[in-house]
Amino acid sequence: MMKNTVDPMATEAGVMAALLAEKGYTGPEHVIDGKEGLVHCMGPEWKLEILTDGLGDSWRIERCGMKYFPTEALTHAPISAVLQLVEENDLVPEDVAKIRIRSLARAADILADPTKYDPRSKETADHSLPYVIAAALVERRVTPAEFEQDKIMDPRIREQLHKVEVVADPEIEKVFPALQRVGVTIETTDGRQVGMELDYPKGDPRNPLTEQEIEGKFDALADGVLSKDKARRLKDAVWQVDGMDSVSELLELCVTDL
User: Fold this and answer.
1) Distance of CA 14 to the CA centre of its chain
2) What are 166's strand-pairing partners?
3) Who is most buried in 9, 91, 108, 133, counting CB within 10 A?
4) Is there a contact between 63 and 146 (Cβ–Cβ < 8 Å)?
5) Quick one: DSSP state of residue 112?
6) If you ran DSSP here, which 8-state letter would residue 212 be given?
7) Which domains does the chain have, with CATH numbers?
């Protein structure tokens, strides 16, 4: 359970710090570089200039990835590639004879061992490369909805599991982690082959999400939590953040809308 709260808690702490700074709150510098501070206890090879270099001109958040799929990290590049191929070639499950994935040895070993071809729960499905690829093929998306129990046992998705083959590729091992490369080949029932290599999954800053994809992820997470009208108003508020003078203005707008 805690795994799902650590990022929101860090975000909450960051927003609170920004609100306090906006009101003029300051803190002791020695907690960073003083006696028994961060550098003293954990250093000494800290590059403190990173904290201020380019401050106000460039933003680290723009170099951060956004996890697009609610699945194990090594499944993201294969899902991204399969979705792209399926959409570009307008493939439906009945068109597909085999999906061959070339990836890291650990992906083949951990995410595609024989037990992963028969997931029975969310915890096994979101760590099953065959399942998430099958779901991507059938639903053309991988969202929290694909990990509800009725969806995990959906005959149409389960019929695709045996089509997924995962093999370790030594050449891909050589470029990891600089590249998160994956190779995907889809063989169709009429004898065609379509394929691609992808170096970064969707959501990586080098393969960023479009605004439409970000909204789609938000909608998938808000489903069942917010009404469609409240979700739309919250999205509108977030898209206006660049024009706001303070963090307080955004929080005020969110609270008013919700």
Assistant:
1) 21
2) 101
3) 133
4) no
5) S
6) H
7) 25-58 (no CATH), 73-198 (3.30.1330.120), 211-257 (no CATH)
